[in-house]
Amino acid sequence: MSASPILAGQPAAPLQAAFATRLIVWQRSHGRHDLPWQNTRDPYRIWLSEIMLQQTQVSTVIPYYGKFLARFPDVAALAAAPIDEVMALWAGLGYYSRARNLHRCAQAVVERHGGAFPDSPEQLAELPGIGRSTAAAIASFAFGARAAILDGNVKRVLARVFGVEGFPGEKRVENAMWSLAESVMPGEQASGDDVSAYTQGLMDLGATLCVRGKPDCGRCPFTSDCVAHATGRQRELPAARPKKTVPTRRTWMLVLCDGDGVLLERRPPSGIWGGLWSLPEAADEAAIAELAYALGAVRDTRGLHRLAPITHSFTHFKLDIEPRCADFNAAPGAGGLEARDNETAWVPLAQIDDYGVPAPVRKLLDALKGSLI
DNA sequence: CAGCCGTGGTT
DNA sequence: TAACCAAGGCT
């Protein structure tokens, strides 16, 4: 079998030896040093930031990080909190399985490790929501452990500097990058501070100079050795994800109002918006009318008001939301608020913040609140 | 192992 | 504007 070579050019052996040292020097003088989760070795704070930063940009994370730290100052506080409160604080940040795993992880640290995070990457990676790269980042920043990370920044830097071919999301390419990441780490003699600076340097270089759009090669410490720079292929490396047409789904949502309260339902724990509170949903116009009728909100199946449709884009599909509105009190024989189980709730619009609500639904309800004033 | 899982910024 | 994707992990 002759798979195409992943390393394009020559091994660049001289750089491989000097890579870590040069990166550490660069990080200390030109890297980032004042992000909210830096200048601490508290594994709790480092862990919290690393989970939030998974597939999420720094500027988006910062306000959430502050909110979480204020509400949950340590891992015990987070472990003791009700999951609903965690989900409510996480709402809007996306990838909600992270929030459930965050809570499970805090409880595991308390129960399995007596409230102290383990210091080895292997043990960290056994905890919910912590994979190989996140484990290495935590171990490196909190404990100075020698462990390779491989996030989007590192993939971009390595692909360009060492000329790694292929889409990094592909398993074969990712495996090669893990090997490369291990091979360019600081040596055994490196101090914990060196290791932390190295790990931070990889992230900083990728986030500030070796960016996707227009890399600032003039300021990069590796310009003279960079395969992409030498061949003018900064834009081609790393290889882009293969294009796929994203499907469009359509859903109908019921905005059932009772005074200033609206009916919310808890979504199932897995799948899109898992564990969040959202509006009752149906697959088509007839089904949403049936639902409103069954809830006693309308006199017949034509009593719904149409609201402006909303389109929401996910990574892998688009969602068209058709909101349909009904006033519970206007229904004949409406007996007032029905006792609800743990999966449904009448929520005053002013208290939406207490519930974890998907971003587009939140926008819809915010607009509704504005229109009622 | 490849598909699933959010949202907002950037180009 | 529509594509692209960011401090990935889980199944």
TrEMBL record:
The residues that cross the membrane are none
SMART domains registered for this protein in UniProt? ENDO3c (SM00478)
The EC number(s) attached to this protein equal 3.2.2.31
Catalytic activity, reaction form: Hydrolyzes free adenine bases from 7,8-dihydro-8-oxoguanine:adenine mismatched double-stranded DNA, leaving an apurinic site
The protein's enzyme class: hydrolase
State the UniProt keywords alphabetically: 4Fe-4S, DNA damage, DNA repair, Glycosidase, Hydrolase, Iron, Iron-sulfur, Metal-binding
Spell out the molecular function terms from Gene Ontology: 4 iron, 4 sulfur cluster binding; 8-oxo-7,8-dihydroguanine DNA N-glycosylase activity; adenine/guanine mispair binding; metal ion binding; oxidized purine DNA binding; purine-specific mismatch base pair DNA N-glycosylase activity
In what residue span(s) does the HhH-GPD domain sit? 52-208
Q: Name one Pfam family in it.
A: NUDIX_4
Cofactor(s) this protein cannot do without:
[4Fe-4S] cluster
The record's annotation in InterPro entries points to:
A/G_AdeGlyc_MutY, DNA_glycosylase, Endonuclease-III-like_CS2, HhH-GPD_domain, HhH_base_excis_C, HhH_motif, MIG/MutY, MutY_C
Q: How is the cofactor bound?
A: Binds 1 [4Fe-4S] cluster.
Which biological process terms from the Gene Ontology are attached to this UniProt entry?
A: base-excision repair; mismatch repair
Instruction: Tell me the protein family, please.
Output: Belongs to the Nth/MutY family.
What this chain does, per the entry, is described as: Adenine glycosylase active on G-A mispairs. MutY also corrects error-prone DNA synthesis past GO lesions which are due to the oxidatively damaged form of guanine: 7,8-dihydro-8-oxoguanine (8-oxo-dGTP).
Protein name, entry field: Adenine DNA glycosylase
Which organism is the protein's source? Trinickia dinghuensis
